[in-house]
Design a protein that fits this description.
About 35% of the residues lie in helices and about 20% in strands. By secondary structure, it is of the alpha+beta class. The strands form two sheets. Strands 7, 8, 9, 10, 11, 12, 13 and 14 form an eight-stranded mixed beta sheet that branches. Strands 1, 2, 3, 4, 5 and 6 form a six-stranded mixed beta sheet that branches. A hairpin with a 5-residue loop joins strand 1 (about 25-30) and strand 2 (about 35-40). The longest helix has 21 residues, at about 225-245. The protein is globular.
Amino acid sequence: MGIRDNFTYTDMDLWLNENRVTEIECLVPDLTGVARGKILPRGKFTQERGMRIPEAVLGMTVTGNYPTEDEAYDRAISSTDRDMILKADPSTITMVPWACDPTAQVIHDCYFADGKLVDFAPRSVLRRVLKLYADKGWKPVVAPELEFYLTAKNTDPDLPLKPPIGRSGRAETSRQVYSIDAVNEFDPLFEDIYDYCELMNLDVDTLIHEIGAGQMEINFLHGDPLSLADKVFFFKRTLREAALKHDMYATFMAKPMAGEPGSAMHVHQSVVDCKSGLNIFSNTDGSPAPIFKHYIGGLQRYMPAAMAIVAPYVNSYRRIVRHTAAPINIQWGMDNRTVGFRLPESGVQDRRVENRIIGADANPYLALAVTLACGYLGMVEQLEPTPMTVNSAYDLKFELPQGLPEALQLLRAEDKLRSVLGERFIDVYAAIKDLEHQEFMTVISPWERDHLLLHV
């Protein structure tokens, strides 16, 4: 279910009037997942059905810089700093629960002057992959599980993060996985989160305490990938705002605290036939269909090359280490949480695969696009997976890139992903990540000062 299924512009205007909205946040998810755009008064929003912002807004690093010396980037993005035309998607209109005045927010799609979608915009990349499925008569279904940390406020980036103070007046000092009481320490915060999510129609499901101190996980009900990406995008904003209201931070950084597990965005995925509505991963007798194995084979074959998209920052690779609840390879197994691709025990129509490689820091549109792209390629190329792993995959070798430069090299070299996701998207994205890594390399870490300053 979407946020506002089948809403038209007329429906959106009536809804804005009913809710007495005075201003609208016009949002565009950039490549990092940051909300860009403009805030318009209600009247101006109605008049401007084609708001404009510079195309380069989609081509920035997380620090706000541009890779202007990259030739492929220069070919992809106009050097004249031209505008994109933004058009609201009425199905995404929802309230801003934390705003003082009645304020709405709506996600926009990006178009060139000729009316074509901006192909390197995250929503456009996901739409491109979904069209490939539609052309085959398939419809993918996903269910994201998003991990995050609550931390005490930290205004000095040189100091390590600490768990926040709960209702008891104390911070967590030990692992509290699945503890109800540990979640209840932050009841006032989570009551606000659930109220906000209900008001925004985000369809969140269960909340649990994860392994790390102050680490939580929220699960979303399964549904359409574009709608779920919108909901994850909205949820990240919502959670951060709610946490600030309660004098703490919420972070989706992949590895925010040393000595604690990282945060993932596990994505359950299946595919149904558009005509019959049946899960194509199952035969009529209930056994796994060959195409199910091909989907897994596609994930195994292409996910290493997709790593720069699902682990998009230098910090992302700190999560991918042995025995820390994150996979280190592309093995698959039945109800096995040590592998990259887990097959949960399920019914015939619920047969699915869970991609456990994706980090919580990934852009939800791009993460869903690329994992579905890998599975799609596996199905159309009829790729066979390796034998199933029945023991711990941590005993096996690394099969995933262990750093951003290696991941970007694999991404650029994989022509099949370039074809499915779009050439200009790959060129723009890789250039941005190259520059981010260069910026990171200018920073000297405490570890280097601790161990190298006087010892080498």
